[in-house]
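Query structure, 234 tokens:
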């Protein structure tokens, strides 16, 4: 199996497992909330149960598959808008630790994506870069560009299909990624930094759910994550 096939298989397995777990968790929370209303004593214990179940529910949401109506949640926007939103959300960390470089193409067309999810994707990738930088001269460079792909002419159909993309690149001069980890970094719970190991998994999952792709390349202390966003050619 290729890496993408392995990832999709694992993601599908986890999603099916989550679908089994989520119902009893919801029942526990609902029962605790009902008992909290009925009981006049020891309500703080029910509050603990509700809060802990909520933490578990938030954790589970990371692994859930996209909803059937995901298309309805997509909006049309400029890609630089969500990049700057992600940077703003991480502003304190970025200002204190690294030099941020922007290299944006102002001529890029708008995209049709789930804005909220794409912000999470970018925040996770930028955070991953931040966590890999420990030196004083560390930097993160975020670039955008338009990539012209191949044009496929379909027989008997006048309209051709063009595989054009908007490309977002997040480059850092941190510790880099060791070659033996190349096929593992997008898997859940894998981390070399004593973290939960869910950020890159969530980024990859969101990308696939939005018909995008996340790839990376790392050489010595230079790492570049690439987000490929397909654009319909005309």
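Result returned for the query:
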């Amino acid at each position: 199996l290729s890496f993408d096939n392995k990832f999709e298989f694992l993601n599908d397995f986890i999603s099916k497992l989550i679908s089994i777990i989520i119902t009893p968790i919801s029942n526990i929370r609902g029962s605790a909330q009902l008992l909290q209303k009925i009981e006049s004593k020891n309500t703080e214990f029910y509050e603990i149960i509700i809060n802990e179940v909520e933490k578990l529910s938030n954790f589970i949401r990371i692994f859930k598959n996209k909803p059937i109506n995901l298309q309805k949640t997509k909006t049309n926007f400029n890609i630089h808008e969500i990049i700057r939103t992600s940077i703003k959300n991480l502003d304190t960390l970025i200002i204190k630790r690294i030099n941020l470089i922007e290299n944006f193409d102002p001529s890029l067309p708008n995209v049709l994506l789930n804005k909220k999810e794409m912000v999470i994707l970018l925040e996770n990738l930028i955070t991953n870069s931040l966590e890999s930088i420990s030196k004083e001269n560390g930097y993160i460079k975020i670039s955008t560009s338009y990539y012209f792909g191949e044009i496929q002419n379909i027989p008997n159909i006048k309209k051709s299909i063009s595989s054009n993309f908007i490309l977002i690149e997040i480059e850092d001069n941190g510790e880099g990624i060791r070659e033996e980890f190349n096929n593992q970094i997008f898997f859940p719970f894998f981390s070399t930094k004593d973290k939960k190991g869910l950020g890159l998994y969530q980024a990859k999952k969101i990308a696939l759910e939005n018909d995008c792709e996340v790839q990376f390349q790392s050489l010595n202390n230079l790492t570049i994550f690439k987000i490929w966003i397909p654009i319909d050619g005309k």
